[in-house]
Every structure is written in C-alpha cells, then in structure tokens.
Amino acid sequence: MTTRTGYVWHERYAWHDTGTALGIYPAGGALQPWHAFESSESKSRIAGLIEVSGMLDALERIPARPATRDDLLRVHTPEHVDRIRALSDDRGGDGGDGFTPFGPGSYEIASLAAGGTIAATRAVVAGQVDNAYALVRPPGHHAVADSGMGYCLFNNVAVAIEHARAELGVGRVAIVDYDVHHGNGAQSIFWEDPDVLTISLHQERLFPQDSGETTETGGGAGEGACLNVPLPAGCGNGAYLAAIDRVAVPALRAFAPDLIMVCSGFDPSALDPLGCMSVTAAGFGGIAARLLAAAGEICGGRIVFSHEGGYSPAHAPFCALRVLEALSGHETGVGDPFDLSFGDSPAHELRPWQDEAIAQAEQVAQLLRTA
Ligand code: 9RB
Ligand code: ZN
Q1: Is 218 left (phi over 0), alpha (psi -120 to 50) or beta?
Q2: What is the pLDDT of residues 268-324, one digit of tens each?
Q3: 327 inside domain
Q4: Most CB atoms closer than 10 Å: which of 103, 191, 221, 360?
Q5: 55-111 per-position pLDDT tens digit
Q6: How much of the chain, in percent, has pLDDT values that exceed 70?
Q7: 142 an active-site residue?
Q8: Residue 26 placed within a domain
Q9: C-alpha of residue 13 to centroid of ligand 1, in Å
Q10: Could you tell me if 267 and 305 are in contact, meaning their C-beta atoms sit under 8 angstroms apart?
Q11: Which atom of ligand 1 is nearest to the CA of 97?
Q12: Neighbour count for residue 121 (Cβ, 10 Å)
C-alpha cells in the first residue's frame, strides 16, 4: 500500500510582505536596505523544488482555506486579531514585538497559513491522507495569545489543534518543534493544559533568549506536559537524532497522543543565517522518519507537519524535500548538494557536551513520566 501524503501550498503565502530591512533590523544609516530574513525566498524555492523534483506528483494536493475569525479566537484574544486585521486593512504594521513586520493584506495571508494547517489536519484526521505537510507562511510558533512575535502573527499549529479538538473530536495532541528557535508560543498557550504536550528542541538561549530551559515543565493542571530540549550551538545530525530518539520519542510514547503536530523549521541547517547548528538534509530526513515511525506506533500514523522558519534559500529546499521523501516514501533521487561540504563533517558526531545536554532533558522527561 502506498502512502498518501497531503501537501498544502498557496502562492499567496509568498505575497506576505515583510519589507525592506537588514535581516532583522530596519534599514537606514549604515544599514543598507536588503530584506527581512523571513522573506518569501526560502519557502518559494522549497515549493519550486517540490515541483521540479517530481515530488509534487507523488503528493495529494490539499487546498488551503482561510481560518475563520472563530478559529483564531480559540487561541488568540480578539484585541490581537482585530489589531492585525485593522493594520492589514490599512498599510500594514508590526505583529506586536517590533520585529514582526507585515504589509497590507497579511491578515488574510496569516489566516490562510493557520487555515492551511487546519486543512492538513482535517485531511489527516479524516483519513483522506495518511500524513501531511503544510508549507505555510507566515510562520506561527512564536505567536502567543495576545501578540505576534518573531515573524509570527497567528500560532498556526495551536489554531489547528484547537480546531481539531473543537470540531474533529480529537482528544490529546503532542507538538514536536525542531525549529532552531524555542517554540515559546505553544508552550505559553498550552501551559496549563494537560491534554497538549509541547516538546521543543532548539539552540539554547537563541530566541526568545529568556525561555526554553528544561526547568519549564508546564503549570497548574498542565504541569508535566511541557518538555524543552535546549541544545548547545554546533549540534549536527548525531545530536539531533539522539535528542529525538532519547527524549522526544519516549515522551511521545508516554503521553500517547491521538495526533502529533510538528513545527518544522529548517533553521538548524548548516547554512542558516539565524542558527548555529549543522543539520543536513539527511538529518532532517532522519528526524522525520523517526517521528513518522513514532506516530505509526502511537496514534495510527496521524502526523501533520506545519512549516516554521528556515532562512537558507540555498539549503532549505533540499532539507524539506528529504522530509517529504520520508513522509511519502517516494524518493526523488535529488539528494543534498551540500553533502559535498557538510555530509561527512565531524560536526555530526555526538560530542560529550551535547550528550550531557540531551541526558539532562532525558532525565526531566523521565521525571515527568513518573510524576
Ligand atoms: C532583536 C530581537 C529576532 C527575531 C526573530 C528571529 C527568528 C525567528 C525564527 C530571530 C531574532 C529582539 C533583534 C526581540 O526564525 N523563528 O523560528 N530578533 N529579535 N530584540 N532585538 C534587539
Ligand atoms: Zn526559527
């Protein structure tokens, strides 16, 4: 039996305008105008390679529909939703933290990003497809209930989870976030919720700088349903796969969710300008294969990937292609051209200080299970 993998992409995602900037900072003075790191470039090139490699022919295209205001309001405050809408209807503005610029029309595009993740989730839960990848933009994993943050306007994955719980009869959900930045948004939104486990693997103290420690384990009724795996800079495939095998998968098994959502960011790439990790396409493919196997074992294979960061237009397409190969079982034969430089790097060996960081998260995960 062949695997049916759903795929969401809409050209409008590329029209989300983060404007002129020097990566993160407004241009001006000595800062020559360029573009925000979170531009359409990486994601459009991912969509391009998916088509050119022939992968698209092996996927089931799922149409994106905008999330409704009610969908957004299950997660976000009306003040936040209405503020983004009003700015978007005018000339654009900022998501709320001063580092999340957007242009006119981004309310509709961000609604389509959350809605694309909902559509992928609906297709998986209905059994229309076996698993799915929503290549959406803007990203979502930093957005909290009352504000956008770090290039994110609405928390796409949180909105899809609340939709699934309210309308699709889904009970328990786990999130695995392998973006190089901390998944602070879902951690905050589901902090007191015992039915949503949030797991984030990230470069320690990168962004946000004051969250993502192993000591953050949830609060109130949600105590124990939050797990952080802060990793030291410099981790390659070995450390990432060890963190998945030793921390994320055992935590998923113990939690036994009905559905797994993945915040899929390619900024742990060896070529990313915003992270200092060294993961290659083979590493991302290995992560996806392990999460897929875990879903098969735990929740009937129900797993939905929603795209987050990843800012190497050169490398991200090959990383994403390998994830889709793992999900669909269809091999394009394209490979990772950057393997020539990074494939055999000693950075892929698990180093003692990386092992120590993983062991610490492993210990926290064990404590949470026995509590
Ligand atoms: C600066 C701040 C940022 C904002 C977003 C990212 C990446 C997000 C991503 C990185 C750095 C703050 C420059 C706050 O890819 N998530 O997945 N910088 N934000 N203060 N300052 C001075
Ligand atoms: Zn990121």
Answers
A1: left
A2: 999 999 999 999 999 999 999 999 999 999 999 999 999 999 999 999 999 999 999
A3: yes
A4: 191
A5: 999 999 999 999 999 999 999 999 999 999 999 999 999 999 999 999 999 999 999
A6: 99
A7: yes
A8: no
A9: 21
A10: no
A11: 14
A12: 28
29 CA to centre of ligand 1 in angstroms: 21
pLDDT at 1: 65
Closest residue to atom 15 of ligand 1, CA basis: 309
Q: Whose CA is nearest to atom 8 of ligand 1?
A: 150
* 150 within a domain of the structure (yes/no): yes
Q: Which of 76, 142, 182, 348 is catalytic?
A: 142
Measured CA to CA, the distance from residue 226 to residue 256 in angstroms comes to: 14
Which of helix, strand or coil describes residue 6? strand
- Give the residue-averaged pLDDT of 172-191: 99
CB 369 within 8 A of CB 247: no
- Structural domain including 66 reads 5-17+39-370
Q: What is the mean pLDDT of residues 358-368?
A: 95
The verdict on residue 30 lying in a domain is no
In which residue are the tokens 């590329």 written? Answer: 14
Q: How far is CA 147 from its chain centroid?
A: 18
Ligand 1 centroid to residue 140 C-alpha, Å: 13
Cβ-contact 12, 63 below 8 angstroms: no
Between CA 154 and CA 145 the distance in angstroms is 8
Domain tally, the chain: 1
Cα–Cα distance, 247 to 4 (Å, whole number): 28
8 A C-beta contact, residue 175 and residue 199: yes
CA distance 181 to 274: 9
Residue holding tokens 């309210």? 166
Residue 336 is part of a domain; what is its CATH number?
A: 3.40.800.20
> In terms of C-beta density within 10 A (0-12 exposed, 13-18 middle, 19 or more buried), how is residue 76 classed?
buried
The residue type found at 330 is H
